Each structure stands twice: as C-alpha cells, then as structure tokens.
Amino acid sequence: MTHRMVEDDYRDPGYRGADYRDADYRDEGPLDPDDGYPPEDLDKKGRTPAQRKKRRWKIIRRSAYAFVGLFIVIPAIAFVITYFMVDVPSPQSIAQGQNQAVTYLYADGSPMGKDVPSGGNRQILTPAQIPDVVKHAVIATEDSSFETNSGFDVTGLLRAAFNQLTGKAGGGSTISQQYIKKATDNDAPTLTRKWTELAKSFKMNQTYEKQDIITAYLNIIYFGRGAYGVGAASQAFFHKDVSKLDYTEAALLAGLIQQPGRSENPKVAQGRWNTALDRMLENKYITAQQRQSAQFPQVIPLEESKDDANAPYKFINMQVKAELAQHGIDDDKYYAGGYTVQTTIDKHAQEVATQVATDALKDQSDDRLLNSLVAVDPKTGGVLAYYGGPALVDVNGKKQGARDWANTPQNPGSSMKAFDLTAFLKMGKGINETFDGSNNRVFDGRKVRNAGPSSSCSGQCTVAEAMKRSANTVFYDMVLNQTHPGPVGQAAQEAGVKTKDNGGKSLISTADANIALGGGNTQITPADMASAYATFAANGIQRDRHFVLKVTNAQKEVAYEAQPSAGKPAFDSSADKAKQIAGNVTMALGPVVDFSHLKCPSGHECAGKTGTQQHTMRSGEPAWAANANAQTWMVGYTPSVSVAAWVGADGDQALHGSGTSPIYGSTIAGPMWQKFLDGYLKGKPAEKFDQVPLIGVQAPPPQGDQNAGDEPPQQTATNQPDPGGDGNDHGGPITGGPSQPHWPTGLPHWPSGKPSSHNPPTGGPTTGEDPPQE
C-alpha cells in the first residue's frame, strides 16, 4: 500500500525544527525509506546528500578556524608578546662591543701599524663613510627587498623552506636577520632562535632607519682574510679606504659575504663576483654597459694583507697598553673603541735604534748575547725609541714570544755610581772631595778591588777622577761610610727609577753597600736607567716616562691626551738646587765618555757611564769564565736625549767576545750607544749643557803625581784586552793615567782629554763591580 505524503508531513531534510540545531554533532539514525528519498541516496547512517554536504562544509569551516587560530592568531599573539619582550641590539652598542684594530701612529702622525685583535681586524664606520656603491652591491646580492621589507621577507622564508625540503642551497634571511644573528652571536639551528630573530629583526626595522641598519650590517659581517666589516675588508683586499672602492671592487666584497672562507679560491671569487654584478644589474644599480665592461678587480697578495705584518713593535705595544690602562682604557675597552693612538716614538729614532741594536750582535761569536736600547726625551719624558730585542725567538725550530729586555731588571754595575754621587752631592759634598782610590781595600773584613789597572787611582783620589776611572774602592767607601745605602736608593728613585712597590719592575736593595757598585739585589731596567739619566740631562727636573701623546676613538673624539709636564725638582725642593746637583753629576760623567774611547755626537756635549756586572764562576766552567762579565751597560745623555744601552744574557752567564775575551760596557753597549746618538742627532742643532756652580770643595788640594796602582803591567806575550772592570776597557793603549787633576778656576766642566797610549796590558786582576767575597 502506498502512503502519500501531505504538505504538513513534508519537512526540509536538513530541518528538524528547534530540536535539530545540533544535528551535526549527533547521529539522528537512519531515515525511514518511506520519507521520500530512494534508499540508494542515503549513506550507511541514513543521511541524505544535503545533510552530507552541509556536514562537510561545517567540518571545513571548523578546520579553517582551527588552522587560523593555530597558525595565524596564536602565532600573531605570540609574536606581539615576543616583540615587546625582546631587546633590539642597537648599532651603537654592537659597535662598542666589537673588537676593532687599534691604530698606532708615530709622534709625527705617520702610521706605525695596527694592533689587531685575535678575532680579526675590524673598523667601525658611520653611514656617511660607506659609499652608496658598496651599499647597493650588498643589498642587491644579499637582500634585494631590503629597502621595502619589514625585517623579514615572506617569499624568502617560503623559498628557504622549499630549498631545505628539496635539498637545494639558499636561505631566506634578510640583511636585518643576518645582522641580528651576527650581533647576538647566536647561530643555533633551533625554532626558538629563529623566532626571536624574526621578532628582533622586525622590531629593528620599526626602530632604526634603513641606512643605520645597512651600516651596522656592513660593520659587523665577515669578508675573509681576517677582516670584519667593510672598512677592514677594503684594506685587506685592496689596500684602499672604503670610500675609494669602485663598483667592481664593491661587487667582489659583496659576493664574498656568502663564502668568505673561500675568498682565496679564484674560481669561487670570480663566480661570486659575477653573481653580485648580475644582481646589481637586475636591481638597476649599474647599467648594462657597466656590466659588460666590468673587469675583475686586482686583489693584493694575501701575504701583504696579513695584519701582523703591519703590527706595531710588540714591546712598544705592550708598554702603550699598560699606560692606557692607567688612564681608563683597560683591556676590556682597548679593542672596543676603534682607537687611534699617537705615540711619543720618533720614527727616525726607532729605526736607528732597531738598526744599531740588530747590527751590534750580528757578528758576535757568543750566541747567548742579548741587548736592548731605550731613548727618552729629557724635556718631556716621552720615549723616543724603544728596542727590547726581537719580538720572536726560535726555540727548537718553533717561533715563540720573546722577553722584553728593555723592561727586565738587571744589575746596573758601575752605571749606579751616578746615584752614589747624587746622594753625596745632596750632603753638600762635591766632586773634588778625595778618597783613597787604591786597589784591594778592605772594608769590615771584606776586600774590594778595582776592576783593572786603569780603574785605580791615588790614595788622594778626587771623586771626579774616581768616576772617570770607575774606581770601585772610592764609591764603596763613599756609600758605606758617608752617604749610606738608603740615600743612594732614594736618589735613584728621585731620578725616575720605578721599583716594584711604586708601580715599576726595578729592585733597589739598601740592605748593604753592594748598591754602591750596582750589584747584589739591586736590579734596574734599561728603561728606568734611561729615564733616570734623563733627569740629569733635564737639569734635575724629573718627568715620568710615557709612550702616549693622544688617543682618539672611532668618532675622532679625544679619549685621552697627555698634558705637557712641567716636571718636578728631583733632588731638592728647590729647582735651582736640583739643577746644581744634576749639573755636578754631569760634570763628573762628561770625561767618562772620552776615557772609555767613545765620542759625543758632533756638535753635542754628552755625559755618561759604562757599567759591568761580573759573572759568578760555577763549578765545571773553563778558567776564562773567572774573568767574564754577565751584564754590560752604557748609559748617557745629551741635553736633548738620554739613552740606555744594555748587553747581557738571560741570567748570570759567562759572556765572551772574540775568542774567550770578556766583554765590557765599552765593547758592545758603548758603540751601540754612540752609533744611536750619531744617527739620531745627525743634522740637529748643536747643544751644550747649562753651567752650574760647583758643590763643596772648589779645587782639590795641590799634590804631586801619585799613581797608586795606575801603572799598567808590563806587556806579555798574551793578547788579552784591558780588563776595565766597569766597562772602561779602552780598546787600546792606555798609560798609567794623568797625575791627579785640579779643577781649573772659572771653567764649568771638567776638562776632558784622551790619556796617552800604551801597549795593551795583560794578566790584570779579575773584573767585577760587585765586591768579591773573601
């Protein structure tokens, strides 16, 4: 029987009244076959096609809502939260934190070299210092949408994702993202890092101008050859300032950003250069004609680009760093400011010092010999030249850093006698006071000997004559019985010797009278000796030794500038008294130069003192070691420069010259000192010391000729040099010496004059400044 539907019985299959609102969420069960649809149109659950269609669309809508919520709304909210939580590294802060090379200049402003940090060379530039051609080359090559994107490029991200899935190369990072990655030094392959990078990159583009972002990027990115930043790269590849680069050179640097480690591979470099030029053309930064006519730029050889080849002298660098630390630029700040340091070093003086010191040891038979030379300007305290030996030495076939011998304390030997005399003059005693200058005198049961026949003088020997001859017995007597050790140490420090308890390295021992002859535990650096003698040259005005004139930062602002030093009176509160004391020391030291067979530079008065320290012979050493010396010196000055020259070894070694002959202050150190002064002062105006009144006795008492041990021994068949114990080996014939001299009335200087010659003595007593033990 057929059932016929009436109008009231019919309902839309998708409509079930108020009770059917949630039809999609429950199963109504199969429809009755008599409801009006053929059985074949119903699914297994009895749903009609219209019901099924509506259900599908509702599922799609729900999925779309979930997708939008999960992948758009929630990330957007998270991105906003991240945006406000992250800090964007400002270009200024990153620039300050980057290690940059420190540029060194000589006193005249000419370049000395660059101190490059271990991470490579860096140079922080301003937007105006980087030309557009460089910016355009990098933008075209690395991020063509840089000018318009907001810190990240969606199409670039999708392209990068596709490349990763398909195994192809190429990333999607913008210039902003690359900068963030380099600035934060975080390259971890994590979603967290990438997420915060995107937020920081976006925030950076909302915070800074595009020109600041591209500049910051170009200051931090690595180009190869140890060059961080386009400023350093321009020098490393072309020896050019970045402002001088043309479009072909800019293209090469831009291309190398992707493969800086292969910058020396010609094929890679050529390929990256072509890629950069093609992209510059696509972005209309160059014309088709420029692209066609482009020639691969000439790159300097790799060895010429190495930063260490152009580094400042290592030991000057070390001294400058130590000095800057005292003025607020310590190790944490040293490489951060892009500093330029103008030093006190005179270029010509440094070249002369390096040459004469190197030449002095070239033909020596003793390969243990070391040397150093320091020159100081008495008028300023500025170091004019500083040579502490080679910066590198060969040890078992490998190069390693050497010690700075100019800053290593050594026994000063008889060069200490200048401070003995200073203490004596401060007592009101003078250079015409007399002492027993004979040899082998005994003090408190201890025998003190003079170093050789020419070092002894009469039983009534003036201090001036004793200084010229370097008579040990006179100065040991003076310090032991009159000045005492303490005032000698004080005089040395007043002159400029910096001890360990006063920020220096030198040691001054006042425990016994060994200080008189520069032995025992008294050890002074060559740098301190040059500074201390500079005080005598400066008429008793002491000025601290320094290496730095001025420091400017990357913005050309002055970070530190040394102020001209008026100095301070060294040996007395009165400048006039200090000058008189210093002038009397100069009177006594003047004749030493000539007596040691050295000469003052032409047209220049000079004064100085040689010195040696005897080697302590050890068991098993050859017999000649008993006469050997371990340290030798020549320290002296003109009114415009004070120079300390040291020749010795690492520790107490029995040093020798030709054959097994001992070396003295005038053997190697003296000629080195003289050659430096000749070279440095050549062509400079003549100069004389100021005249000052004598202190103490104006003239020694009249007396006849006395020669207490001065007569040279008879010549023998041997051919040993004169063992002048403090370095006064006269290199040739010397007589028994002139009779006891008198101070000529009205003359400010002790008259010099070469002693007459004699045959070289032989078989003299052993050398040494330090009084031998009984």
How are the elements arranged and paired?
Layout: H1 49-85, H2 91-97, E1 102-105, E2 111-115, E3 121-122, H3 132-142, H4 154-166, H5 175-184, H6 191-207, H7 210-220, E4 222-224, E5 227-228, H8 230-238, H9 247-256, H10 266-282, H11 288-293, H12 302-305, H13 314-326, H14 331-334, E6 340-343, H15 347-360, E7 370-376, E8 383-387, E9 392-395, E10 398-401, H16 417-426, E11 434-435, E12 441-443, E13 446-448, E14 461-462, H17 463-469, H18 472-483, H19 485-495, H20 526-537, E15 541-542, E16 548-552, E17 558-561, E18 568-569, H21 575-595, E19 607-614, E20 629-638, E21 641-648, H22 665-681
Helix pairs in contact: 1-6, 2-7, 3-9, 3-10, 5-6, 5-7, 9-10, 15-22, 16-18, 16-19, 16-21, 17-21, 19-20
Q: Low-confidence spans: pLDDT under 50, at least 5 residues? A: 1-29, 703-774
Radius of gyration: 42 Å
The main pleated sheet reads as: 5 strands, mixed
Count of separate DSSP helical elements: 22
Q: Largest sheet, order of strands side by side?
A: 2-1-6-16-17
The helix-and-strand class reads alpha+beta
Round the mean pLDDT to the nearest integer and report it: 80
Helical residue percent band: 25-40%
- What is the strand tally? 21
Spatial gap, N to C terminus: 150 Å
Strand content: 5-15%
Question: So what's the overall shape?
Answer: elongated
